[in-house]
Amino acid sequence: xxxxxxxxxxxxxxxxxxxxxxxxxxxxxxxxxxxxxxxxxxxxxxxxxxxxxxxxxxxxxxxxxxxxxxxxxxxxxxxxxxxxxxxxxxxxxxxxxxxxxxxxxxxxxxxxxxxxxxxxxxxxxxxxxxxxxxxxxxxxxxxxxxxxxxxxxxxxxxxxxxxxxxxxxxxxxxxxxxxxxxxxxxxxxxxxxxxxxxxxxxxxxxxxxxxxxxxxxxxxxxxxxxxxxxxxxxxxxxxxxxxxxxxxxxxxxxxxxxxxxxxxxxxxxxxxxxxxxxxxxxxxxxxxxxxxxxxxxxxxxxxxxxxxxxxxxxxxxxxxxxxxxxxxxxxxxxxxxxxx
Length: 340
Prior knowledge:
This protein is mostly beta strands. It is built from no helices and 21 strands.
């Protein structure tokens, strides 16, 4: 007999460019309203129908469609990098559990999963569950069948919920469905391998939104793993208000745009003083992939592009890379996912 477990994610919006990429000038006026990326960093001045003062910094329609920030995959940290097994997922909270031995509120990044059964953990996302040990067929945690609910909250204030859309891929043991703001979406059930794509373009509301992944964990003797996997979770919505500008005059490296990327990604950074800046791409092993810049820059904002090429002229394989900025003021790094 199968019972229903609910795994939830709460969604809201802040902004990142998602339609035509912004064309950043070398410096941006301190009073320009700001456009925020999915990690809450500014990537340029914000232009919309009610604020055209910074229009020279953008091309295309001034009505801005922006990416949803904070739509994190399961098992990653605030920078989007995967966490070690046994870590507490900082974005999904276990708010209800059918297993009295693991009542939450922590959702745990699984370190032992049913190898050959579940979609393998990778450099983009990992399974989360009530505990780190979800092994099978070797004895893992014998979870009872029942409801397991995980949730993350965001706010749609300042964005148009009627035109919002999200998409991604998900997996569950043993299957399930998705609800948006408590309403069934009619999306088909996934399995635990491969992940199943999903998309939602209606049912969003102003303010706080909730996205619930309903996982059906069947009863079984011995090891009875259960878990949720979400990967490639992204979304967009039109901006209907002007976001406040971020503080100026400090070293800052914005998240690459777009991210994930397939053909060209823009990387913006700002310096409080003129000086030399070095911008590199490294792989997850720390090896140098590409030197994007190694020269003097004026104070203010600068924009550099990466097309996925290596210093040797080849193309990088799909995977996770890191943008590193080094200046006399300090250093910073950002994660970028390259798709092929």
